[in-house]
Please model this.
Amino acid sequence: MGLEYILVNIALWFGLYLIVTLSLNLEYGYGGIPNFGKAFAVLMGAFAIGGIINRILIYIFSISGQIIEASSKIKTIVNSIIISNPSIGVALFLLSIVLSFILGCLAGALFILPSVKLKEDYLAITLLAISEVTYLICYYNVDLIGGYYGVSIPDVFSFVPGEKRVFVFSGIVLLISFIIYLMLNKLLNTPYGRLLKAIRENEDVVKAYGKNIMTIKIKTVSLGSGIAAIAGALYSLYSVNVISSSFTRVEWTFYPFLMVLLGGAGNNKGILLGTLIFVVVKILLTMYKFEISSILNLPFEAVWLEYIMFGVLMLIILFYRPEGLIREKPIFTKPIKNVIEKRKARK
Amino acid sequence: MLVIEGALVYANLLVLLSLGLTLTYITTGVPNFAQGSFAIVGSYAALTLLRLFNIHPYLSIPVVFIVGAILGILVYLLVLKPLIKREASIVILMIATLALDLILLGILGAYSGFLERLTHTSAAKFIFTHLDFEIYSFSAVLFVSFLVIFTLIGSLFILLYKTKFGIALRAAMENPDLAEIMGVNVEYTRIFSWMLSGALAAVSGCLLPFRQEIVPGTGPIIIVSIFAASIVGGLGNIYGALLGGYIIGISESLVTYYLSRIFGAGVLVYGKAFSLLVLIVTLLLAPKGLVSINWSKILKIRRVFKWA
Model:
């Protein structure tokens, strides 16, 4: 265990948070949409597994009873099937990812719909309110995804021996986050990415060029929510249960914003750096929580200290380096490069 | 009867909170995401006075008012003023208040642990209902909350409409640039609005434990109702906060209560969902809030239809 365990934990959380921060960067860094309800999309990803896949499995194996008990029954049945037939596990894994992405996209589009025409402050308030209320409903209503009790979900990699599981999972999460990174980089280097930046800078100009800002914003948040939902799904598949209390605003809205602003909004390299720094600090803090508490002789839980620290860190970033560690660079498209070369040649 | 009583108390407290939110929004242009936590600071101040000095929460209202005022001033001077000076955008200011909310949450959580160690009684979760008494078979908190509303809002309106400072304040709210040209110090009006906002929130938080259980994380939950109240009334208008506070406060309690009588107690968790629904409907129909609707115009149109 020891160092190995810390490293693999960092890798896992880096992958998970990278997916969310990349999606937030698409919305906030590029599109300028202050999505204060990022946690909503992540929760939707978890919902796709705990609420939908679970129900499908329960229906297939025709198990009766409430979702909470039925889910633990289905877990043992499906786990034993996956052990004897790993391909089913892999298929279930892929199905979960695809389903969570689709649900995330749909939910994201609905999520922004009421406020898409509004100014950024109203937009942020509405998104935060929707996210918060969805969280409360999922938390207090035990019939949806088990509420505060949570539901169990099958371990899609139950064929992997227990001690290697976390390594396999971290590898897969890292791989998926890397694929998303490459795809988003590609996507944002197209006219669509530049259009997003144009909307961020000045909506009226974009409107004057005949673009429909509303549909672009809906598409962007829909895509961003779909991507973030994948993170929620991966997290649930890793922890083999879905408890809505792990999808709080602090963990999945505030921290992603912190990472994006720390690294530098509007450029994906900065996001990589910001996420890495944050995750390393956070994992180390969680690992040495008890040591810190006992050394400082804190009369309270270390989590409160973590909140204060990260809140203050955010304020420091906003005060002294709002553009982040890595600054956003101007875009050089082919026509612009040609112009620059011609100018150089003339000189 | 008990339900209506509770709804009225809740509405009164929500009015105080949304009034503070609207005030700071008008003067600084940023919706304060930490408004809920401001209230919980008030709750914990009242709890401290109760546990350490055995002062009844009703009597500690003036002290809590001052605590909230100091908190408001500190928040403005330490967090918002430096950012506004650096010409930060609204989104950056909003993120700053979000960070502030987290800091306050952390401080409250840590403080509850500290208070627990000091008094050897749980402070992570508390309620004041057992301290309440009855006046003419109504709970005292109903009278106290109305008394607080009348005194605070009454003096606020006297200040706004009868004093020179109030006129300057209103001018700065209407048009800060023009007011500055006329010699009004906009900075004072901003500090004043944050001070008042913190004080109103803290007083509201002092009475909130009479109606619901308080934990350090209550602030981030009630913020939904506060925003709903402010936006339904109209975020840019002080009267809007009054109107919206009563609409959301009463409907959130009463509607869920009557729905629960039809559909069973499971509906009670949807109280906040109802606020959200009202908020969304308002945003779709009248984004500037109910105050912005030109009722006489709508009535005129109706009259025209009648003649036709």
